[in-house]
Specification:
mainly alpha; three-stranded mixed sheet; 64% helix; Alpha-Beta Plaits; Alpha-lytic protease prodomain-like; 2 domains
């Protein structure tokens, strides 16, 4: 039920973004027709990209919400990384278009007209974009949707563009120096390029299963906090994300004489506790068994097969549980 609500919320957010993007583009293009301003033209061009990006975002959300099947056993969530990367690329293209248009106007000369009306129309569209960005960002964070978060960043970049252009046009009005119009547009475009780069970088990291340090810290701290005495060692902790799903796996060393039923209790505890912090998570635990070489590290007081007292405590840390474990760290042989 939670997945269904999240998917419906994401789809609604993407639809609102698309419809609002079309209305805002019409407003900005009307401002360009009235003023013939290079900066406003650049802003309107970016809004076209906003529309395309919103359409791609809606498509990716529809696809990512499809259930897993035999061809995609882990679901379709990875498409959101493609969507975010595509949006980042579009943002970068918008920045380059603005720079090109600005340089062209500097060379041939800029003569914008009716700037007061243009500023008013840009102010209205920029305010609408600001509220739209905050709305989309809220849904994106609530549903853990990279696509919507990327779309919100894209829209916010458009807000910065419009604000910079409004300032530039205001300077033109006060100084009667038209060249400030394209110069301000170029300055704003540099920030847009940086925003596009960050989105592309984030999407590539997601597709390459790059470690999210915050999520790794969250998982590690939770596991360490629920550690049981019979958990002799935990190592090779890994995870990767797909949309709002997190897939986690690790090795857990238990006493060799534990029954399957006893071992399964540890599995159930991990699943129960981890789902409190990562509701859409899936865990795969590889159960390893101990041997007598580990007795000196084992703090399980109720062990019935101990051959040696615990003389060397092995503290669990994030670095430790994501590493190779007690046995390999201390040069011991695999059982």
């Amino acid at each position: 039920m939670n997945d269904l609500l999240n998917n419906n919320l994401k789809k609604r957010g993407a639809k609102v973004s698309l419809v609002a993007g079309i209305i805002i583009f019409i407003t900005k293009f009307s401002a360009f027709l009235v003023t013939d301003s290079a900066a406003i033209f650049s802003d309107a061009a970016e809004s076209i990209i906003n529309i395309v990006a919103a359409a791609v975002a809606l498509y990716s959300i529809i696809v990512s919400s499809m259930p897993a099947d035999k061809d995609h056993p882990y679901g379709h969530g990875k498409i959101e990384y493609f969507s975010a990367g595509f949006e980042g690329l579009l943002i970068a293209i918008a920045g380059l278009v603005i720079i090109y248009s600005g340089i062209s106007k500097i060379i041939v000369g800029a003569e914008p007209t009716q700037l007061g009306l243009g500023i008013l129309l840009l102010g209205v569209s920029s305010s609408a974009n600001l509220f739209l960005s905050l709305y989309i960002k809220g849904i994106g964070e609530r549903t853990n949707s990279l696509t919507l978060i990327a779309d919100a960043k894209h829209i916010m970049a458009d807000v910065y563009t419009s604000f910079g252009i409004i300032v530039g046009l205001g300077v033109v009005l006060l100084t009667d120096i038209p060249i400030f119009d394209p110069i301000i547009a170029i300055i704003v475009a540099v920030n847009i390029l940086f925003t596009g780069y960050k989105l592309v970088r984030e999407s590539v990291g997601g597709l390459m299963n790059e470690v999210d340090c915050e999520t790794m810290k969250l998982i590690s701290e939770k596991i360490i906090s629920i550690r049981k005495p019979e958990w002799i060692d935990l190592h090779e902790l890994r995870f990767w994300k797909s949309a709002n799903n997190t897939f986690v796996d690790f090795h857990l060393v238990l006493p060799y004489y534990f029954t399957i039923k006893e071992a399964h209790k540890s599995d159930e505890l991990v699943l129960s506790e981890m789902n409190k912090i990562l509701p859409e998570s899936q865990f795969k635990i590889h159960l390893d068994y101990c041997d007598y070489e580990l007795c000196k590290f084992c703090e399980y007081a109720n062990c019935v097969e101990r051959k040696e007292k615990c003389i060397e405590k092995f503290e669990w840390t994030q670095k430790g549980i994501t590493g190779i474990g007690i046995r390999k760290t201390n040069g011991l042989q695999e059982p």
